[in-house]
């Protein structure tokens, strides 16, 4: 096949040199509710074209490549005093896979065990392009299934206003689960 960027022959949808050029991740940090840190690996604008593949046939492959360049590298370096669980925000499959479950799966490591179908939204409201006021007025209504550990890492694909993650954190805290920090693939500026 051909690399989707340089169109050279490649066994991957994005060849290794193009991954190095376009998908070398950084750590962008910000704080949300109760001072919980959100670490993001890319700026939204820098990977927008890749993120837009989410609901296409390519989405699964492109998200896997992005996760290998970010979540998997983070997990490899991450050390903690004991094993913890990572859970993804609303990992319901759509377009044949769940993009947040895919990101979460790449955290599998010595100290992190991904758990699936734990945090699901009751409200399918779409936040893309919507204001903070709209988001606050239309909560996702998360339900949390039982988790084996008392500490978790929360995983999502994009943080914009932080409304979704704040609500997810609150849902965990209500159930007596401590959120150590959150990881997102991209951080977007509020429009
Ligand atoms: Zn290429």
Biggest sheet architecture: 7 strands, mixed
Question: Which structural class is indicated by helix and strand composition?
Answer: alpha/beta
Relative helix content: 25-40%
**Which percent band covers the strand fraction?**
25-35%
Count of spatially separate domains: 1
Distinct small-molecule ligands in the complex: zinc ion
Task: Please give the alpha-carbon distance between the first and last residues.
Answer: 37 Å
What is the overall pLDDT average?
94
CATH architecture: 3-Layer(aba) Sandwich
Q: Count of helical segments?
A: 7
Low-confidence stretches: none
Topology pattern, helix = H, strand = E: HEEHHHEHEHEEHE
Biggest sheet: strands side by side, in what order?
A: 1-2-7-6-3-4-5
* Shape category: globular
Q: Provide the CATH top-level class.
A: Alpha Beta
Explained architecture:
- This protein is of the alpha/beta class and 191 residues long.
- It has a single domain, classed as Rossmann fold, CATH 3.40.50.
- It is 30% helix and 27% strand.
- It is built from 7 helices and 7 strands; from the N terminus they run αββαααβαβαββαβ.
- Strands 1-2-7-6-3-4-5 form a 7-stranded mixed β-sheet, sandwiched between helices.
- It is globular, with a radius of gyration of 16 Å.
- The mean pLDDT is 94.
- Zinc ion binds next to helix 1.
Explain briefly what this protein structure is:
By secondary structure, this protein is of the alpha/beta class.
Supply database-style keywords.
alpha/beta, binds zinc ion, 7-stranded mixed sheet, single chain, 30% helix, Rossmann fold, 191 residues
